Structures are given as structure tokens and as C-alpha cells.
Fold:
Amino acid sequence: MDHDQHQHQPPHDDRHHDHASPAAKHGGVSWSMAMKATLHCLTGCAIGEILGMVIGTALGWGNVPTMVVAIVLAFLFGYSFTLFAVRRAGLDLRAAVKVALAADTVSIAVMELVDNTVVALTPGAMEAGLSDGLFWAALLGGFVIAFLITTPVNKWMIGRGKGHAVAHAQHA
Structure:
């Protein structure tokens, strides 16, 4: 945070500053910040989820194993994006893993719950193949809905020094 930003922030309660991000310490979390955090997380989730769906569908697996692989890969890719970013910021691997887990677990879990629920509840989507427009419409529609639901969750968490605030603190 630069000096000018610091001067324009309201005073904060020093009792709560030990683990909070600069945004959380000063009470201001913009929707833009929450959307960027959600988009960052969604990008990793989408890559993992699509890869998992493609693998499961291409190998002729059933719905449950395909969804499990897609969810596992969504978490793996989601965590990886944050892990690489905080490693570049200078954290050792152990600390970087802790930050990635703290920053992304709730966000990815909400996204995966919403996205997979949308796909599961879309008639015919689970039976659709990779070349079927319904497959992609349900998957992408699920991502949009997941983004809309997860953004306020991330805003709330960042405002409390949790979630992506943990990762942002490493870049400050």
C-alpha cells in the first residue's frame, strides 16, 4: 500500500491488526477487489473442472467419477494459481501452501458446489457429450452463476482478513 492510500484511510483498531490484510484493517473492500479475487480463483477452477470433465467423458467414465476428478482438478488448479503467485512474492514452499489453502479453500468450495449443482440440475447435461452444446452451456452457465454467488462471499471474507486477503497481504 502506498503512502497516499494510507493517509486517506480512517483510523483502525490496533487490537485486530495482527493477521488482517491492509484492506481489512481499514474496513474498505471494493467490489472490484472481490471480483478480481473471484475471477482469479474461477480461472483455476474452470481449467481444472473442464480438464476433469474432458478426461472423464473421453474415457467413458460415469458421472460420479468424472465429477470427482473435475472437482479434485479444480481445487488443484485453483490452489496452484495462488501458490505460484505467492512463491514469486518470495514465500518458501511450506508458507506458500498455507497461504494458498487459506486464500482459496472457501472460494473454490463455494464455486464447485454451485457449478456442479447447476450442471447436475440441468436436464440432460450429465449425459451430454463433449461435442454437445448442452454440455458446454451447462458448464459455462454454472461458472457464471458460481462467480455471481462467490464474489460476495469473497468480499465478505477479504473484509475480515480471510480468504484472498491472506494472499494479497503477501504481495504488499
